[in-house]
């Protein structure tokens, strides 16, 4: 596997250090947890869904929190008092913690647990000040917001 040195980017680009850090972290994919399995889906142009298989977990055992640009999902199984004797144990019931880096203006709008699948809905909401605007020539202060149309 190739490794890339992003040091030149740190030296010559101002404000892109977060992007370089994301590339750097992506190279260390082995450190990323593979449990529980999950999907990331593009639902529409500005809507996303993370679906995570959390069979055996109750709603009270899962925490979802966002802090700035990070979404963190944590599952903590409660200890069972009764000792069980498994002949085969194929359903994992271990604790987990998984983090996702969110792009600017992406926020969590909802989550639901259904049939062992945790669905987290996300949306990208671009503020009005950052949306494209049309400037009318010789129109003075006449500035119109452009409507973004999907191709």
Automatic annotation (TrEMBL):
Residues 29-140 form the SHSP domain. The keyword 4Fe-4S does not apply. The keyword Translocase does not apply. CDD domains: ACD_IbpA-B_like (cd06470). It comes from the Bacteria. It holds the Pfam family HSP20. Keywords: Stress response. InterPro entries: A-crystallin/Hsp20_dom (IPR002068), ACD_IbpA/B (IPR037913), HSP20-like_chaperone (IPR008978). Belongs to the small heat shock protein (HSP20) family. This is Molecular chaperone IbpA. The lineage of its organism: Bacteria, Pseudomonadati, Pseudomonadota, Betaproteobacteria, Burkholderiales.
